[in-house]
Amino acid sequence: MTSQRATLAQSSSQRPALAQSSGQRPTLAQSSGQRPALADARRRRLTLAVPSLALGGAERVVAKMANYWAERGDLVTVVTLSAETCDTYSLDSRVTRIPLNAMRDSQGPIDAIRDNLARLRALRAAIARSQPDAIISFTDRMNVLTVLACRPFAVGPVISERIDPSQYEIGRAWSWLRRRVYPGPGARGSDRTSPQSTAGHDARPADLRDSQRG
Asked: What CATH code is carried by the domain that includes residue 48?
């Protein structure tokens, strides 16, 4: 498939702000699939954030969701920390692709902090440029980065946990950040979490489970 996806250049490190909506959203090309395209007034701007589109369960889910929503007429953006050359899953040509090319091995703690701050700035700029009505983030560390990246914006992300946190260690610093930014009493971050399993739900703090019951 000849890709018509737009690859956006990385923005500067200056702190961006989401642009205010002004008038009608851009018109998409008519869908060639089986589902009819949505009317202009019903189209949503949806941004999905994931580390990469390499082989994996979360990555496959992101590709399927992005392609489904693009087919029905929504304006969909997929942001990855990796470069586009790492992709295993294909996206519909109507999906805007923003590869940040920010994945590299850090050489020690100081280097890791520097690299993650750079990823955070690049991710924040990419989300701002996509002007989303809704943001969905996938996988543990990416979720933490996305919540932090969205703090200046009015729209908070929905974060999807793809693991059982009680069985999978993501590191002391990342675990501390996750407790601080995931939704719940006293936290300032995501609008909602979406655990993949009952075990994943039960592994979260009790106050977080209670705050999202029902």
From this structure: 3.40.50.2000
